[in-house]
Amino acid sequence: MRFSKSGDIRFISHHDLMKLFERAIRRANIPIAMSKGFNPHPKLSIPIALGVGISGNDEVLELELLRPMSVEILVECLCLQLPKEIYVLSGEVIADSERCPVRDVIYEVVFKNPEFLNTVKVSEFLQQPFIVVNRTKNEHQKSFNIRPSIQGITVKSGRLILSIKVETEGMARPEEVVGALLENGRKEIFEIIRTKINLTSSA
Length: 203
Hints:
Blueprint: E1 2-5, H1 14-27, E2 44-45, E3 55-60, E4 62-63, H2 71-80, E5 86-90, E6 102-111, H3 122-126, E7 132-137, E8 140-145, E9 150-156, E10 159-165, H4 174-181, E11 190-199
Parallel strand pairs: 3-11
Antiparallel strand pairs: 1-3, 1-5, 2-4, 6-10, 6-11, 7-8, 9-10
């Protein structure tokens, strides 16, 4: 299924989003399959998490049902149980063998002052072989080279368009790319929107 996430609900975590979908599916009486074991849970997943504070125009949700169900009815029932900031756009039935990992994602970065983009040197930035950022996890910092996962950066209609691919070692976060791109440590106010998730089977 493809869905959008916008408004104030973009500030909830990935974990809370999963719980939200679980509750909506339960209220809609959708016959979702459950995992086995001592702690069974609904078989649904979001292949790639959306960062807190980032809107998503075309997110992916995968769920496994116990029995066939009309996609149109499924979408309608689920939408009725979701908050207005989350909207199911479409659904498609696929075989388990057709499930594909994420290939790359597209982000739009909207700046409060679009004229700032006139000073951004995208070509010089992309010519760098290494773009290292520091990440903090469990109070420990670790250096990470984000350059291999940056496929492209373009300026279009006063916005930055970022194309970021999934790498085995990990992928760049959009806020890291923007932070590294800004010169002289300038802080600009911007909003990030994930506009597209491409799976490996996508054209």
